[in-house]
């Protein structure tokens, strides 16, 4: 489901959280703040007498020392306040007794009490009368039904006997639509919070959701998939020299198109790839399946006699002759190369090089790189194979040692390891190899840039063809991939690997040449 993406889920969750938060705040505004509340706290609980077990040491003078019963006395200051958002009336107290609240001092006996209040609430004192239920008995202090506006408070200074400092003190009573609860005051260093705890939690949750959504949006690759993406499975075969390009472009196509297409790269040489495509196409025609999902890349044009194969010119590939680093030559004429590959040059000293025997390291007959070399440089086929391991001559009548290998990588590795060896390769692969170097031909370097700008007649180059069996359907993966490779994002990959894309102003001219 396309809408079930990470950013959509976070966006929906943020919206739902916002709606819930708004509802909670409305409920909180209507329900919680409107509750009637009486809060109380002990602001002082100090010893007076000597016999208070956990009290601090003290000194007494006057009545505190002379009055009877002071040996185990304590003094408590109890603050009672309306800390809700509504005023409290006499009728809001729910107890059946005359008084409204009861302060209970566990383990101690009330000996006396004094009431204090702020100067602007003198009217509260009128309620502290015996007729209003103001009295004490044992450990209980009965407090009248005192009406309290929001924020009003009063204090009770209570003289107690017996017990210990810190014994439990609680306020008992009930309020209609409210509660009596212990509270606390801010210390002098405390600052009241700007927002309530609920508001802070909701703000943090909303902020986290918005930041998460923003991070997803920023990090997400919003680049739309290339026009004409297609699904299915496709096999790319043929040129091993062009295989690195195919692997990278195939991976890029799969990522850009959402991972639905699957593209397999299985290269075994240009000629082998052409034959594989022709066989698959013939089988598909017999089965009535049309053009098979196979594209064959070839270094140069297909062999004659395969009219069903349709070509697409993709790039100009540049190849290089490479020699072992012990052969310190950097330039050969085309004529010298032809003499080498006819077996007329057996030792490099014949060309002004070191005293090393020549080893010709070639590709097998399926190689497009070899076919380009024969067509563009030698003007003929190579001489017969005379060695299996490229080191020893298996045919004693052969003029030089010549071997054939299955891949470009094998050629490069063998040339790098074998003194006196010479071979050929796609230019970009040769440039990265160690232990060998490229040769100029007739003074022209193996350079794609020089060829592109028309400053070099370097001959060892060829058009890279992509063949299909007939014309694949326009909405097929084969057709879509070829467009992507030749005219889309594949052009950048082609250039990165040292080839010249055909669908550029310079490439169009070069690719139009036979």
Describe this structure in words.
The two termini are 50 Å apart. 34% of the residues are buried. It is built from 13 helices and 21 strands. α1 (6-30) runs antiparallel to α3. The chain is of the alpha/beta class and 514 residues long. The chain is rod-shaped and about 140 Å long. The strands form 4 sheets. Strands 10, 11, 12, 13, 15, 16, 17, 18, 20 and 21 form a 10-stranded mixed sheet that branches. The chain folds into 4 domains: 1-35 and 181-223, no CATH class; 37-176, Immunoglobulin-like (Sandwich), CATH 2.60.40; 233-312 and 468-490, D-Maltodextrin-Binding Protein, domain 2 (3-Layer(aba) Sandwich); 315-463, Periplasmic binding protein-like II (D-Maltodextrin-Binding Protein, domain 2), CATH 3.40.190.10. 29% of the residues lie in helices and 25% in strands.
What are the SSEs and their pairings?
Elements: H1 6-30, E1 36-47, H2 63-66, E2 73-82, E3 101-105, E4 109-116, E5 135-137, E6 140-143, E7 153-161, E8 169-172, E9 178-182, H3 197-219, E10 233-238, H4 243-256, E11 262-265, H5 270-287, E12 294-299, E13 309-324, E14 331-332, H6 334-341, E15 359-363, H7 368-378, E16 401-405, H8 408-417, E17 421-426, H9 427-432, E18 436-438, E19 440-441, H10 448-452, E20 461-469, H11 477-487, H12 490-496, E21 500-501, H13 505-512
Parallel strand pairs: 1-9, 10-11, 10-12, 14-19, 15-16, 15-17
Antiparallel strand pairs: 1-2, 2-7, 3-6, 3-8, 4-7, 5-6, 12-20, 13-17, 13-18, 13-20, 13-21
């Amino acid at each position: 489901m396309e809408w079930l993406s990470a950013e959509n889920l976070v966006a929906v969750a943020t919206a739902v959280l916002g709606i819930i938060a708004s509802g909670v705040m409305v409920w909180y505004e209507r329900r919680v703040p409107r509750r009637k509340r009486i809060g109380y706290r002990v602001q002082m609980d100090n010893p007076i007498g000597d016999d208070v077990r956990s009290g601090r040491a003290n000194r007494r003078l006057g009545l505190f020392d002379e009055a009877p019963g002071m040996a185990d006395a304590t003094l408590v200051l109890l603050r009672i306040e309306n800390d809700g958002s509504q005023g409290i009336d006499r009728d809001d107290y729910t107890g059946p007794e005359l008084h409204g609240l009861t302060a209970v001092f566990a383990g101690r006996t009330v000996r006396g009490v004094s009431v204090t209040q702020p100067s602007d609430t003198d009217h509260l004192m009128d309620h502290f009368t015996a007729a209003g239920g103001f009295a004490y008995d044992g450990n209980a202090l009965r407090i009248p039904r005192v009406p309290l506006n929001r924020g009003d408070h009063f204090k009770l200074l209570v003289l107690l006997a017996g017990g210990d400092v810190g014994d439990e003190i609680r306020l008992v009573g009930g309020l209609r639509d409210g509660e009596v609860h212990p509270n606390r005051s801010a210390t002098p260093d405390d600052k009241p919070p700007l927002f309530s705890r609920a508001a802070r939690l909701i703000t943090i949750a909303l902020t986290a959701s918005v930041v998460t959504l923003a991070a997803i949006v920023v990090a997400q690759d919003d680049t739309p998939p290339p026009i004409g993406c297609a699904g299915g499975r496709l096999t790319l075969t043929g040129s091993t020299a062009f295989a690195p390009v195919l692997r990278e472009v195939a991976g890029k196509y799969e990522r850009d198109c959402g991972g639905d297409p699957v593209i397999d790269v299985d290269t075994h040489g240009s000629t082998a790839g052409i034959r594989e495509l022709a066989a698959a196409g013939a089988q598909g025609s017999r089965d009535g399946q049309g053009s098979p999902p196979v594209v064959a890349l070839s270094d140069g044009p297909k062999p004659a006699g395969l009219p069903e194969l349709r070509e697409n010119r993709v790039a100009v590939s540049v190849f290089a002759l490479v020699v072992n680093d012990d052969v310190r030559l950097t330039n050969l004429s085309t004529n010298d190369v032809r003499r080498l590959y006819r077996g007329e040059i057996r030792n490099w000293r014949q060309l002004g090089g070191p005293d090393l025997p020549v080893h010709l390291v070639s590709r097998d007959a399926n190689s497009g790189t070899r076919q380009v070399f024969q067509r563009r440089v030698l003007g003929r086929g190579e001489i017969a194979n005379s060695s299996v391991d490229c080191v020893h001559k298996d045919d004693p009548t052969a003029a030089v040692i010549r071997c054939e290998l299955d891949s470009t990588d094998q050629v490069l590795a063998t040339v790098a390891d074998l003194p006196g060896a010479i071979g050929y390769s796609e230019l970009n692969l040769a440039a990265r190899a160690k232990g060998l170097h490229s040769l100029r031909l007739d003074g022209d370097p193996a350079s794609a840039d020089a060829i592109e700008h028309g400053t070099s007649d370097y001959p060892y180059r060829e058009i890279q063809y992509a063949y299909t069996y007939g014309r694949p359907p326009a909405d097929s993966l084969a057709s879509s991939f070829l467009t992507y490779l030749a005219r889309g994002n594949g052009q950048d990959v082609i250039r990165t690997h040292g080839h010249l894309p055909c669908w550029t102003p310079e490439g169009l001219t070069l690719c139009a040449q036979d």
